[in-house]
């Protein structure tokens, strides 16, 4: 899950948001992912250090984005990345739709579990 914030998040709020993101239940793998590394490499940027210098962002932020270890991104960070990489925000985010089972199959499982309990 990616959470975009208009203002920098720090301290207690950052920890709370991280805990909420960790405790959220997902039916499958993450469906959104930041592809900063792929886009940066197309622009000739070879490592997170170079990205941090060009974008004037903290190295740790760029390293986390580069290695896909980030579950939140500030709007200012996204804006700087888009400016440096010459892309739109949608080109930094890859979306893979989650495949859910058909509704009938889900209902059948629910009926079976109820009949086992009775």
Task: Break the fold down into its secondary structure elements and pairings.
Layout: E1 3-5, H1 11-23, E2 32-34, H2 36-42, H3 48-55, H4 59-66, E3 72-74, H5 75-85, E4 93-95, H6 103-117
Parallel strand pairs: 1-3
Antiparallel strand pairs: 2-4
Question: Which terms would index this structure?
Answer:
mainly alpha, two-stranded antiparallel ribbon, 118 residues, 434 Repressor (Amino-terminal Domain), two-stranded parallel sheet, single chain
| Share of β-strand residues | 5-15%
Distance between the termini: 38 Å
Mean of all residue-level pLDDT scores: 80
The CATH superfamily turns out to be lambda repressor-like DNA-binding domains
In this structure, how is the largest beta sheet organized?
2 strands, parallel
Shape: elongated
Instruction: State the CATH class.
Output: Mainly Alpha
Helix content: 40-55%
Summed up, the domain count is 1
Adjacency order of strands in the biggest sheet: 1-3
Named CATH topology: 434 Repressor (Amino-terminal Domain)
Can you count the helices?
6
Unreliable runs:
23-27
Any idea what the CATH architecture is?
A: Orthogonal Bundle
What Rg do the Cα atoms give?
Answer: 19 Å
Strand elements, count: 4
Q: Provide the succession of SSEs.
A: EHEHHHEHEH
Q: Would you kindly provide a brief summary of this structure?
A:
The chain has 118 residues and is mostly helical.
How would you sum up this structure, described in words?
It is a single chain. This protein is mainly alpha-helical and 118 residues long. The chain has a single domain (3-117), classed as 434 Repressor (Amino-terminal Domain), CATH 1.10.260.40. 53% of the residues lie in helices and 10% in strands. The protein contains six helices and four strands. It has helices at residues 11-23, 36-42, 48-55, 59-66, 75-85, 103-117, and strands at residues 3-5, 32-34, 72-74, 93-95. Strands 1-3 form a two-stranded parallel sheet. α3 crosses α4 (59-66). The chain is elongated and about 60 Å long. Residues 23-27 have low confidence and may be disordered.
């Amino acid at each position: 899950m990616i959470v975009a914030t208009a203002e920098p998040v720090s301290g207690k709020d950052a920890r709370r948001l991280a805990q909420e993101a960790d405790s959220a239940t997902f039916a499958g793998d993450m469906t959104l992912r930041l592809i900063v590394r792929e886009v940066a490499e197309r622009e000739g940027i070879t490592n997170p250090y170079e990205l941090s210098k060009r974008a004037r962002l903290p190295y740790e932020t760029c390293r986390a984005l580069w290695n896909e270890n980030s579950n939140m991104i500030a709007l200012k960070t996204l804006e700087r990345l888009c400016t440096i990489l010459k892309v739109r925000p949608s080109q930094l985010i890859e979306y893979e739709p989650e495949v859910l089972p058909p509704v009938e199959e889900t209902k059948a499982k629910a009926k079976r579990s109820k009949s086992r309990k009775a």
